[in-house]
Sequence to fold (340 residues):
Amino acid sequence: MSTDVPEAPPESLSSPPVATAEGEGTDADFRSGFVALAGRPNAGKSTLLNHILGAHLAITSDKPQTTRNRIVGIHNLEDLQAVLIDTPGLHKARSRLNRALVDVATAALTEADVTCWVVDAVPLVRSMQKEPNRSPLTRAHTVVGGILTDNSRGPVVVALNKVDRCHRGWLLPVIGAFSQAFPDITVVPVSAKTGVGVEGLVDVWRKLLPVAPPMYPPDQWTEASERFLVAELVREQLFRLTKQEVPYATAVEVEQFEEGPRQADGSRGRVQIYCRIWVERGGQKGIVIGKGGTMLREIGQRARQNISELLDARVHLELHVSVKERWSESPHMLHELGIS
Ligand SMILES: Nc1nc2c(ncn2[C@@H]2O[C@H](COP(=O)(O)OP(=O)(O)OP(=O)(O)O)[C@@H](O)[C@H]2O)c(=O)[nH]1
Ligand SMILES: [Mg+2]
Fold:
């Protein structure tokens, strides 16, 4: 079963932001390096990456384990090129897919000059409110902190995220608890959603990154291919619109990506995209398609809008759903999806 997503002109056509490094990058105090964004699933790593880049590069959802790949976003400033690596959330992995996700995340730590440990402040503040005299850090914090400090090539900085949802009065005691458990780690309270504190976080990274010329041209904002980003934007809607085990049983492959000739005004031609959505069982296929195709149509309409904005072009998107039993246990499939 497939659906054709009706084409409509995108509401706003905007290119991905192309930030420019105004300096030549040869100054003695220009800094550049890799910053890995790591931590538990759902902590806000991808939201932070997007906020810093001012673009919707990494997909986000309120469900854990949304990110499956290492995603590079390049933040260019006058005196800094911070190459951000978004990673899958660290968790106790049992399935082959989940073990691969954790491997992707830990591998990124070894190549980064700085590891930014993104932590959800909300449960910590709640715990402190309930029991002010007890450390709010759980065993999971200790385990993740241990993984990060043991595997990171560079120093670890904590981005204590989602402070927009926290009572400010409780942040200092939470920061204190972190400093007690991890004395060498700087903690910066931020909100990846509103941007509060994010500039300060980048300032902390800047001081820790090496003095070096930029590694990427100043107009490059990611390493990811358009095909990868398109598949991700479809997967994002699967994560946002389907429930329970269904999002975890889905994978998206772009089977065709054809661009028409440029328009008379020089703008990009219409892009024709065919995507295959893989699920593991027939029942999941029914859920993704929905009654009379309503769910698949909704997924397609929302994804097409975002793809249009990303590509800065009119897009025709066709989605097909097929079953591939136990694809998430197949090393070949994980390799095909770039999760290895
Ligand atoms: N209120 C609030 N919500 C946030 C903030 N940052 C992220 N979120 C929300 O938290 C949820 C998870 O965000 P993601 O960015 O997908 O989290 P992640 O760490 O990348 O998750 P995984 O990819 O699953 O590891 C989403 O619903 C975000 O909108 C924040 O600063 N404030
Ligand atoms: Mg993510």
Q: What stands out?
A: The mean pLDDT is 92. Strands lie at 2-5, 31-39, 71-77, 80-86, 114-120, 156-161, 186-189, 251-259, 271-279, 315-323. The CA atoms of residues 21 and 78 lie 5 Å apart.
